Amino acid sequence: RKEVEQDPGPFNVPEGATVAFNCTYSNSASQSFFWYRQDCRKEPKLLMSVYSSGNEDGRFTAQLNRASQYISLLIRDSKLSDSATYLCVVPPLDTGRRALTFGSGTRLQVQP
Amino acid sequence: ETGVTQTPRHLVMGMTNKKSLKCEQHLGHNAMYWYKQSAKKPLELMFVYNFKEQTENNSVPSRFSPECPNSSHLFLHLHTLQPEDSALYLCASSQVAGEQFFGPGTRLTVL
Predict the structure, then answer these.
(1) B39: which of B12, B91, B95, B105 lies 20 to 30 Å off by Cα?
(2) Parallel, antiparallel, or unpaired: how do β-strands A11-14 and A106-111 relate?
(3) For chain A, where are the alpha helices, taking DSSP H only?
C-alpha cells in the first residue's frame, strides 16, 4: 500500500450537494493528519487538522477511521467556491523523515 | 497571509542562466521545504531543512542547489536548467513534522 492514496476524481457535483472524499494511509502509528486545499495555479492552504476521531468546521467535517486506516472529508451544501483540489496529508512512513507526505489530491468541481 | 513570502513570483530564464529563488518565513518555524509542482501533477518534495541543516534531498539533480543560512531564509540556486524544469516552485515552513504553511510560489519557465 502507498503511504497515502486518494481518488484523483474529478468529482463533479451540483451546488448544494454533499460530497465526501476518502484518503487511505499506510502508517498505522500516524497520529495527526491534515486536509489542504489547492486552487488552480496557487499554493496549498491548510483546510483542517485531524488529530483524534475527527474535526468539524462549518460545512466541512473530517473524520478518522483508525481501524481501516483512512480519513475522510465531507463537504455539505457545496458552493461554487469549493471547486479546488483537496490534498490529504499524513506523517511519513519512514520515521527517519521529517516532512509530511502529501497525497496527489482529489479534484472537486462544483457546478451551477 | 501565510507568513511565507517568495521572490520572484515569476521567472523566465535560459538554459545557460544562473538565478536564485528566495523564501522567507515570519512564523518562527524551524523547518523549511522546497517543493516542485509541474502542471497538473502532485507536489514533489525536493529538500528539507531542520534548524538550518539539510535533512532530506529527494534525488534532486545537482543543477538545483539549496541554501539555508538561518531558520527564516531558504534559497534555491538554479543553473543550467532544462525546459522540463519549468514548474511552480513552492517553499513551505513548519515546526518539525507539523502542518506546513506554503508561500505563493515562483512560477519558473526555462526556455
Answers:
(1) B95
(2) parallel
(3) none
* Closest alpha carbon to B11 in B62, B76, B66, B102: B76
* Cβ within 8 Å of residue B55, ≥6 positions away: A97, A98, B48, B49
- Give the B window 72-111 contacts with A, CB below 8 Å: 88, 90, 94, 96-97, 99-105, 107
Interval A47-66 mean pLDDT: 90
Contact A98 B102 (CB under 8 A): no
pLDDT(B92) > 80: yes
| pLDDT (0 to 100) of residue B40 | 80
Residue A53 has pLDDT above 80, yes or no: no
* Residue A15, C-alpha cell as written in the block: 451546488
**Interatomic CA distance for residues A45 and B16, integer angstroms:** 34
Average pLDDT score, chain A: 90
Amino acid (1-letter code) at residue A92: P
- Amino acid at the residue A108: L
